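User: Please predict the structure of the protein below. I'd like the answer in structure-token form so I can feed it into my own downstream comparison script.

Assistant: Understood. Taking the following sequence of 55 residues as input:
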Amino acid sequence: MSQEAFADKCGIDRTYISGIERGIRNPTLEIINIIASGLQIELTELFDFSTKPES
């Protein structure tokens, strides 16, 4: 999915998503929650570093 499509899905400006990816923007918890919803995952999954990625 493109940045633009994802931004539209989340209702966030594409340039804001780009800024987050590049480390220029620091999203609020509200924005992080919106992003998690757009990814169809729980907010806690974005912060759970204890699980190893599937190989």
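That's the full token string. The first helix runs from residue 3 to 10.
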